[in-house]
Amino acid sequence: MPYTFTHHEQLSLVGNATGAWATAMNWGAITPQTTTLHGVTCSIYQDPNETAEKASRKKTLLGLSIKALQSAGIMFTNADVQAFHVGFYSTGVSRGVVYSTGLGVAPTVVLMLGKRITEHVISQHHTHAAGGLGNPPRIVADRLHDYYKGRTWDYKRATAISAAQMCELAQAFHEFGHIFHQLHDAREFFLNGDVAMNNLVPLGAVARSIEIPALSTCGRTHISQYCGANDGNSLNEFVAEVFSGIMMGVDWNAVDPTGGVMTHYGAMGGPAVPTPRAPLTRMNDFVQQRCSCVRNDGTGGFGAGKVIW
Questions:
Q1: Domain extents in the chain
Q2: Which superkingdom heads the taxonomic lineage of this protein's source (predicted)?
Q3: Sign of the alpha-carbon torsion through 241, 269, 275, 278
Q4: What does the buried/exposed string (b/e) look like for 110-132 if buried means 16 or more CB atoms within 10 Å of the residue's CB?
Q5: Average pLDDT of the segment spanning 145-149
Q6: Which of 100, 103, 268, 305 is the most exposed place for a label (fewest CB within 10 A)?
């Protein structure tokens, strides 16, 4: 830091300013609340339809995320970016976006925390350590929810938070994964985007597209159904899912002893985490995870269950 980009990367970042994320909420009609969390200044835009209770939870989550990212040695400072915009909104998916307002201008970071953060977890029977079945697809955050579910916490020592909060935190780290992927290796991020958009003009994009089947198999086998889709969209999602796991204490080399997860992660520009968290204490329970969770209708059996916290 500060972040440096090539001319081509700068052009891509400038182009990101008109991305689809910008229409997900009416940013211009919302007066932001400027706040500083652990020394990082954020402009928080709260959608009028977002409840005060959920906004409060998301603000707490934002603070927890920033503090953990600082401890990991990867969090940006106020001097590194032009602005840090955070959106709390009641609909749609969450996003992590980086853009620039012009060549040579420091990047602007956008973190959007949508509906799924506070209202969704997939819990289901399955015989696969990672993949599972469901719509929306199972993600690392869902696996972590199941890993922590039903445990007894030592509240005096405050050594852990609830399974629901662990799921929320992992989802926030997923979006930060997209952000740091762009900040640390914009070339690889945009190359993956070229593949996802079938814009195979760069030779690197053609080569990257050939890697999709092997990478998807790796993702589906060890990480999550979400990054195991056999298409270009899984490339950047693979990076964000692995980053989320690293930040939550998943030792991916224990999950995949062949080293395939981290090899793919590095090859696609996955950001290095200087000081990763200590591994989960029951790593085998995460690796050999077998859910036995009731459906949303309480009847049990196979299928996805949606939990409203």
A1: 7-118, 120-287
A2: Bacteria
A3: positive
A4: bbbbbebbbebbbbbbbeebbbb
A5: 81
A6: 103
Closest CA to 215 of 177, 272, 263, 251: 263
* Spatial distance between the Cα atoms of 260 and 266, rounded to a whole number of angstroms: 10
Burial pattern 263-289, b for ≥16 Cβ within 10 A else e, equals ebbbebbbbeeeebeeebeeeeebbeb
Q: Are 65 and 169 in contact (CB under 8 A)?
A: yes
Specify burial of residue 218 (Cβ count, 10 A radius: 0-12, 13-18, 19+).
buried
pLDDT tier, 115 (very low <50, low <70, confident <90, very high otherwise): confident
Whole-number Å distance between alpha carbons of 170 and 162: 12
pLDDT at site 309: 44
User: How far apart, in whole angstroms, are the C-alpha atoms of residue 153 and residue 160?
Assistant: 6
